[in-house]
TrEMBL record:
Family according to the record: Belongs to the NADH:flavin oxidoreductase/NADH oxidase family.
Annotated protein name in UniProt: N-ethylmaleimide reductase
Cofactor: FMN
Domain NADH:flavin oxidoreductase/NADH oxidase N-terminal span(s) in chain numbering: 10-339
GO cellular component terms attached to this protein's record: cytosol
SUPFAM superfamilies for the chain: FMN-linked oxidoreductases
CDD domains to which the protein is assigned, alphabetical: OYE_like_FMN
Length: 377
């Protein structure tokens, strides 16, 4: 049997607070649109996540903390008892396979539509998304969001805290606050989406305030050891543009440094970029790095990018599409087996088993190969 010391570091056990992980691999949160219309997780989701339970840690797809935060059709939520019960079926299935899960909590802000949520979206400022948005009736022009009042900001902070408590009740080991990818928290960071003149807009110290208040409230609700935060420094997505990335993120990391969070999760982390190096220097806690990989990476690509980030100070490596297409990704990386390519991108969001729970695993492929062998006379 292979000694763990002979394995690449990616495949060796790791610790994340009180959690003992069997490897350094994290399944990144990925929107898959398989929930019921009201945000309740469905049985097929339990199958999907249980299939991938060999990941060191699974961070489940974004769940909204309130109704107005819904982004797209059939995404998950975590703000009522039905949501909690649905997610508990998922966490039970993953735990039965030996896995561990956090739940990402995400508010869409201006990325929402009345046709989807039944509510008018809210945002830091009344600046619409500069592109169409997918709704139950297809792609629609965006609506101008309503600027959040101070009272609505406070109630949204409270909703994140309540969602975190619900997630723990649903069996999750912790939660990840989604502060990235152009959603509500990220909209507060960027000047092109936040043009407020109050204590939440203007200078960097004001624009990071909502992030800090949300994270602190979630920590108070469930404990710092159960809370992670996802950031995407410099990522231009969903119309968010940053012209002061090198100022925002060091200030934000410093403002959260005393909380002793479970982890910080960096999207498309590049060990050669100064912002990654600065965050790693300032952040004393665990750091999860999500590398930018080719569309259909090989095991060699994953080992190369993952080991580079670990050498640069990352503690764990988060992978999205490789886990989507390969339920047994950990085993494939262990034996350097070929990876399944991701099926047509639209299958990620259309519901059903196809492109979701039907990806083959090595054991099935081997059985098919053996069955196809001619029988000796």
């Amino acid at each position: 049997m292979t000694n763990s010391r002979e394995l690449p570091r990616l495949l060796q056990p790791a610790d994340l607070g009180a959690l003992r992980l069997p490897n350094h691999l994290v399944m990144a949160p990925m929107t898959r649109n398989r929930a019921a219309a009201d945000g309740t997780p469905t049985p097929i989701m339990a199958t999907y996540y249980a299939q991938r339970a060999t990941a060191g840690l699974i961070i489940a797809e974004a769940a909204t903390p309130n109704a107005v935060g819904q982004t797209y059709p059939n995404i998950t939520a975590i703000h009522n008892e039905a949501h909690v019960a649905g997610w508990r079926r998922v966490t039970d299935a993953v735990r039965a396979e030996g896995g561990r899960m956090f739940l990402q909590i995400q508010h869409g802000g201006r990325i929402g539509h009345p046709d989807t949520s039944g509510l008018h979206p809210v945002a830091p400022s009344p600046i619409p998304l500069p592109e169409t948005i997918f709704t139950p009736h297809g792609h629609q022009p965006p609506v101008v969001p309503r600027e959040m009042t101070a009272a609505e900001i406070r109630s949204t902070v409270a909703d994140f805290a309540a969602a975190a408590r619900n997630a723990v009740d649903a069996g999750f080991a912790g939660v990840e606050v989604h502060g990235a990818n152009g959603y509500l928290l990220h909209q507060f960071l960027a000047r092109n989406t936040n043009q407020r003149a109050d204590d939440y807009g203007g200078p960097v110290a004001h624009r990071i305030r909502f992030h800090v208040e949300v994270v602190r409230a979630v920590v108070e609700a469930v404990g710092a050891e159960r809370v992670g935060l996802r950031l995407s420094p410099g990522l231009v997505v969903n119309g968010v543009e940053e012209d002061d990335t090198e100022e925002i993120y060091p200030a934000l990391v410093d403002a959260l440094a005393d909380l002793d969070l479970a982890y910080l999760h960096i999207v498309f982390a590049d060990p050669d970029k100064p912002v990654f190096q600065e965050i790693r220097k300032r952040w004393a806690g665990p750091l999860i790095a999500n590398p930018a990989l080719p569309q259909n990476p090989t095991t060699l690509d994953i080992h190369h990018h993952g080991e580079r980030l670990l050498a640069a100070g990352a503690d764990l490596i988060a992978l999205g599409r490789p886990f989507l297409a390969n339920p047994d990704l950990v085993e494939r990386l262990r034996v350097n087996a070929p990876l399944n390519p991701v099926q047509s991108a639209h299958l990620m969001y259309v519901g059903g088993e196809t492109g979701y729970t039907d990806y083959p695993v090595l054991a099935d492929l081997r059985q098919e190969t053996e069955a196809a062998q001619p029988v000796a006379p």
